[in-house]
Amino acid sequence: MKILITGANGFIGTHLIEAILARTSWQVRTLDLLDSNLAAFKQNERFSFTQGDLFKMDAWLDEQVAECDVVVPLAGIAKPAYYVKRPLWTFELDFEHNLKIVRMCVEHKKRLIFPSTSEVYGMSSDTVLTEDESPLVVGPIAKVRWIYSCSKQMIDRVIWAYGQERDLRFTLFRPFNWIGPRLDTFADARERTARSVTQILYDILTKGEVSLVDGGAQRRSFTWIGDAVDALLLLLENADHAADGQIFNIGNPDNNASIKELALAIRDALAEMESTPPALARKAADARFVSIPAATFYSSTYEDTQNRVPSVEKIENLMGWRPQTAFKQAVRLTLEAMRPQIEDLLRTP
Asked: Contact 248/172 with Cβ under 8 angstroms?
């Protein structure tokens, strides 16, 4: 099987490629602006990388889609800081430029595995979010944060319509707060554009003070990237075509925790890491947590949902997948994998 992955240098892409090359005989062709996370794969004869801008690569993309069996378009904006700062860019990449890839898959009759998002559920009133039943509820237009959710929801609907009217073979998957190494960089955290795990870790290490948006009361269902990639491999394998025409939540409902609980877990995991230097243990133990209004941290156009819990019954029943990694273990695994970056940061004057 030949697989085309765009956005290959990102968090999901690098972990998925690593698993494909280690555990299958599949070939992987990739595209991204950068290759900073891909060096380990370049000697593998089943891996190829093209450096380029998705916005300018239509002819190349069409050729690759025609030659591959499955397309996984992972290029997109997935950071709340960007939703409110660059909403048009968010829309252009997450909807417009991925839509052209969807249409190429229709034209060439190729299978599409597309990343939706847990954010499409928005502020749904459902306690547990189900793929085919939960309403998708977002806030007012002035709350620009929702442009990401709306862009993803609209492309979900277009993909579904192409499946209905033009026989597109597709699977949509909705990540619920996947965590692990390479999620963001400390450079992102310096600019305050990193997502929660990296931002909290960076703030503990550099400032000893963590800013918790609205006190960190928001709850998410944190999912270890290794569990998530196991699910993606099952979707790619698609035994008995069980994933065709389906939407799947990929998350860990047992790992539902508040952002403040995440911060505390990161602090504790830092202090308890094997061979933790005394200075790092003290820095972690002394970390302070400060509540900051969302309008101050992001802007007045930001709005958030207070809880997000996935049902995973559908993917368990159809694909045999269920997450295995507990919340605190996932945090510890993330920090252990990031030890070199942590040590480099601590050595920086």
From this structure: yes
240 HSE (CA, 13 A, CB side): 4
Per-residue tokens: 319:
């694909």
Report CA dihedral (47, 49, 54, 59) to the nearest 10 degrees: -90
Q: How confident is the model at residue 316 (pLDDT cuts 50, 70, 90)?
A: very high
**Which residue in 163, 145, 113 sits closest to 1, CA to CA?**
113
Please say whether the beta carbons of 7 and 75 come within 8 A.
yes
**What region, left, alpha or beta, does residue 214 occupy, with left being phi > 0 and alpha being psi -120 to 50 degrees?**
left
Q: Other C-beta atoms within 10 Å of 214: how many?
A: 16
**Each residue's pLDDT tens digit, 213-246:** 899 999 999 999 999 999 999 999 999 999 999 9
Stated pTM of the model: 0.95
Give bridge partners of residue 110 from the DSSP assignment. none
Is residue 12 within 8 Å of residue 74, measured between CB atoms? yes
CA dist., res. 155 & res. 181, Å (int)? 28
Please name the residue that has the structure tokens 């994933």. Answer: 243
Average pLDDT of the residues of the chain: 94
- Return d(Cα 248, Cα 172) in angstroms, integer: 6
Question: Tens digits of per-residue pLDDT, 50-82?
Answer: 999 999 999 999 999 999 999 999 999 888 888
Alpha-carbon span 122 to 135, nearest angstrom: 9
